[in-house]
From TrEMBL:
Lineage summary: Bacteria, Pseudomonadati, Pseudomonadota, Gammaproteobacteria, Lysobacterales
Pfam families xref list: BolA
Organism: Luteibacter yeojuensis
Annotated family: Belongs to the BolA/IbaG family.
PANTHER family associated with the record: BOLA-LIKE PROTEIN 1, PTHR46230
Name of the protein: BolA family transcriptional regulator
GO process terms (BP): iron-sulfur cluster assembly
InterPro entries tied to this protein: BolA (IPR002634), BolA-like_sf (IPR036065)
Domain of life of the source: Bacteria
Amino acid sequence: MTVEKIERIRRLLTAALAPVELDVIDEGHKHAGHTGEGKGHFFARIVSRAFAGKNPIQRHRMVYDALAEMMPDGIHALSIEAKAPGE
């Protein structure tokens, strides 16, 4: 199930932000015993030209907007590293 979620995250981020670099990692193992355990804890590192000129909050909002359909059920927690090329 986690592999499918990772692939879906990758597809959504690619479609919305055309990243030049993208890593999505399952971090569920870091949340054992947490109330959201098993609901999807992920780390996304994304480098996209779409982030140029945007501050960190704007970048995170862009990522959350791209993944909106997964937020209610597929993603419980998401850590984001969002950069423009060259940063």
